[in-house]
Amino acid sequence: MDFVKASSNLIGGIRLDDLAREFGVTRGSVGQSRLARTNPQYRRPPEGWEVVVAKLARKRAAELTSLAEGLSKARKGSAKTRKPAAKKTRSASSKRATAKRAAGGKAAKRKPAKRSRKR
Predict the structure, then answer these.
(1) HEC string of the chain?
(2) I need a surface site. Which of 1, 8, 38, 105 has the fewest CB within 10 A?
(3) For the segment 93-104, what is each residue's pLDDT rounded down to a tens digit?
(4) Where are the domains of the chain?
């Protein structure tokens, strides 16, 4: 599984169309049910909405669990074939500064950036 497929699966989630199909109503009805109650376009949610949302939540949870397990297995499999990390090297200027300090001289230090104060 690649990053694009995995991240799309993760953020894909449930859409209004999915809710509407499960409730047997239009997408617009579901959208209006999600509005603030003070909005003139507000509609009451369909009867028994809790049961339907719980069902969809369990389905989504199973999908995410499957995704997590698949990624864990892929990670374990790739760990066996992974090359060891390359050793980090220091820059030439860092090496010169270290050598200068070791010789008793002071290495040039950068001045901290000036910060502007907002009042």
Answers:
(1) CCHHHHHHHHHHCCCHHHHHHHHCCCHHHHHHHCCCCCCCCCCCCCCCHHHHHHHHHHHHHHHHHHHHHHHHHHHHHHHHHCCCCCCCCCCHHHHHHHHHHHCCCCCCCCCCCCCCCCC
(2) 38
(3) 777 777 777 777
(4) 3-83
